[in-house]
Amino acid sequence: MESRAKLLGHPVHPMLVVFPLGLLIASVVFDVLFMATGYPVFAEVAFWNIAGGIVGGLAAAVFGLIDYYAIPHGTRARRIGLLHGLGNVTVVALFALSLWIRWTSGEIAPPLVALALSFMAVGLGAVAGWLGGELVDRLGVGVDEGAHLDAPSSLRHERVPVTNRPM
User: Fold this and answer.
1) Phi and psi dihedrals of 100, rounded to 5?
2) Residue 7: phi, psi to the nearest 5?
3) How do residues 26-77 score in pLDDT, each as one tens digit?
4) Contact in structure between 106 and 47 (CB atoms under 8 Å)
5) Separation CA 89–CA 107 (nearest Å)
6) Are 1 and 70 in contact (CB under 8 A)?
């Protein structure tokens, strides 16, 4: 099942998810560095990584939702897609709450509850990411119908008929 939202022949959602994933995971790494060293710059970097990760996560969610609505009802892919989407929305919400707590605390050091929310969100993000992999690798969601090992470039306009695919 092909992705509905594409840029230069490639699905937009997987292009965008790398940014929030990297930023949000890096925020936890910087929180750990802050806890280990006490250097305030690490807490500040974690804060801004979360802010950027939330923005990126919301942008990726828009295109994920477009692709989700293209999945046929009553399929395993639709159920997995729902869990994947809800899991990732929850991840963004947990990080948003962590960011808000950090902002309103007025302290350089993030409060323990903000750290706990971020750490839980990364764990949930790992599960939601695995579900995203299940959608693509096992269920073929977002995969071009003409995909095969010798498929032409996505920038070319002609398509190789599905029946002529090498096996």
Assistant:
1) -60, -45
2) -135, 120
3) 999 999 999 999 999 999 999 999 999 999 999 999 999 999 999 999 999 9
4) no
5) 27
6) yes
69 assigned to some structural domain: yes
Helix then strand count (H, E) for the chain reads: 4, 2
Identity (one letter) of the amino acid at 144?
Answer: D
**pTM (2 d.p.):** 0.87
Distance of CA 43 to the CA centre of its chain: 23
Torsion over CA: 30, 35, 39, 40 (sign)? positive
Structural domain boundaries, residue 160:
6-164
**Residue 1 forms part of a structural domain:** no
Q: For position 153, what pLDDT does the model report?
A: 82
Domain count, the chain: 1
